[in-house]
Amino acid sequence: MTQDQNPPNELNTPALCDACAGIQRNWRRAPGHAELMQGVNRKEPRRHGAVTVTRYVCERCAAVWDYENDKNNTHAGWSLLGHLDPAS
Ligand SMILES: [Zn+2]
Fold it and tell me: What is the pLDDT of residues 3-58, one digit of tens each?
């Protein structure tokens, strides 16, 4: 596979594991993967009301994800926050 260019809008983060790299971002009901550890839920205010956002951390590459479950927004979904800092 030859790939010289990074896709646009790619975050400047450490390498994701294959499973995390395969997550479709900003798409409602896109699946996560088996090695994501579910964390806390929180409520985020949106124009039409509060939605639930769930934090996940990958056990393989320590990537931190939020999954926003907003049935009014098909582009809510997975967003990559970065990686856990092992020192904190
Ligand atoms: Zn991962």
Answer: 555 555 555 556 899 999 999 999 999 999 999 999 999 999 999 999 999 999 99
Which run of H or of E encompasses 56? strand 49-58
Listed in sequence order, the residues at least 6 apart from 50 whose beta carbon sits closer than 8 Å to its beta carbon are 43, 44
Number of domains in the chain: 1
Structural domain contains residue 1: no
| Residue pLDDT, tens place only, 2-13 | 555 555 555 555
Asked if the structure places residue 21 within a domain, the reply is no
7 found inside a domain: no
Kindly give the distance from the C-alpha atom of residue 3 to the centroid of ligand 1, in angstroms, as a whole number.
Answer: 21
Distance 4 CA to ligand 1 centre (A): 23
CA of 48 to the centre of ligand 1 (A): 32
